[in-house]
Amino acid sequence: MRHLPLFRDLKGSRVVVSGGGEIARSKLRTLLRTEARVIVFAADPHPEVEADATAGRLVLVRRPLGEGDAICAALVYGANGDTAEDARVAGIGRRAGALVNIVDDLEGSDFISPAIVDRDPVVVAIGTEGAAPVLARRIKADIEAMLPQALGPLARLAAGFRHAVEALPFGRPRRDFWTRYFDREGRMALDTGGEGAVRDRLQSLLDEHIAGRVPAGRVSLVGAGPGDPELLTLRARNRLHDADVIVHDQLVPRPILDLGRREALFIAVGKRAGGPSWRQADIDALLVDHARSGALVVRLKSGDAGVFGRLDEELDALDAAGVAWEIVPGVTSAMAAAAEIGRSMTRRDRNSAVTLATAQDAAGMAEHDWRALARPGAVTAIYMGVRAARFVQGRLMLHGADPTTPVSAVENAGRPERRTVATTLADLPQALVAEGIGGPAILFLGLAPRRQAAPAALPAAMEA
């Protein structure tokens, strides 16, 4: 290890930056998050640097760095992008006793600036000794996904409560308290009520630990999205990681379930088309029983929990039992299916509204305002429509729909095994059978697939 990782206290320290262009701006974005006194020397500064100076965030000196300008500086940055000028700056800095960093020049620098994940006061630094900046950026992205933005506020609030926690015996009792706070309770309180709710929860959590009471359970009703783990929200990932019990639909794929703790209890409920099913009353009772035992329960639903997921029925049961709950929305399957065919569900010159409909309900085939759905330009996303395709076709054509209306069927949207079928209303049932579409699938009435362009490469961040 060539470079020793250190965290330098810059509160009130003088930090000098030579250069006011794009290279300097990239360093200033980080430096201005510290409590340092930042002085920039630049004859022709970028407008954003001038704006920061006007706002009092830094001191701007409109000339090149000169001898004596780095006296009492803790750090000096050479960010001119000119080898000779940056070498001159390095000499001035070292003669003044400062540590020097020349941007993108490992050998000419006394220290390097790592990639940073900032969850102040929690800071994670990633360095590769300058060997692989792209790898550092990749690691940073992974860590940012792991550490929620809430971590910083939770750490600050915890610091102010440490004295109160001394009421618990030293050792495991205190560790158990902080584990519950950081792993689960603090984050959930922040999500639902802000910092005031966190302060209240800290006190009630401490009271529970002092009294030795069993903590109250709760239920998080979480949208699992269309099936791709990368389309889960960060909050959904956090709830899966925290859960003691995960009650999930049959359609939730294994890669998403694998995000839960191995120690969690997994219970598959719901049904597949034509197969056995759980009674809703039994699912309700399951959620209530586990929550009353003190467990954090995640009710994991495909797509968005509030779209054809019997959400209200489960909330009614939880309210009746006095069980606390929250809703974590997800990417609905219709949104994912529209993305797969490269289409917007609304368009100014085509339709100003979109309908989400189910082809089947508790009574069998679902009835709708078919005349409205059959209008030219109307767009409808139909859930559970594969087995009801002939029924949907008949109802729409009976109410005047054009037989040439484009229809896109998207099976397993957002998953590696996804498939898309383009057809028309007249040929819909036959096309689904010919292509072997069995579901889960979304039928888009009024939308034909668009050829999709390859995703653009993401820019790599520099580390130096």
- Total DSSP helices: 15
**Radius of gyration based on Cα positions:** 29 Å
Query: Which structural class is indicated by helix and strand composition?
Result: alpha/beta
**Strands side by side in the biggest sheet:** 3-2-1-4-5
Percent in helix: 25-40%
Which CATH architecture of the largest domain? 3-Layer(aba) Sandwich
The fraction of residues assigned to DSSP E strands is 15-25%
CATH topology of the largest domain: Cobalt-precorrin-4 Transmethylase, domain 1
GO molecular function: NAD binding; precorrin-2 dehydrogenase activity; sirohydrochlorin ferrochelatase activity; uroporphyrin-III C-methyltransferase activity
Organism: Rhodobaculum claviforme
InterPro entries: 4pyrrol_Mease (IPR000878), 4pyrrol_Methylase_sf (IPR035996), 4pyrrole_Mease_sub1 (IPR014777), 4pyrrole_Mease_sub2 (IPR014776), CobA/CysG_C (IPR006366), NAD(P)-bd_dom_sf (IPR036291), Siro_Cobalamin_biosynth (IPR050161), Sirohaem_synt_dimer_dom_sf (IPR037115)
Keywords: Cobalamin biosynthesis, Lyase, Methyltransferase, Multifunctional enzyme, NAD, Oxidoreductase, Porphyrin biosynthesis, S-adenosyl-L-methionine, Transferase
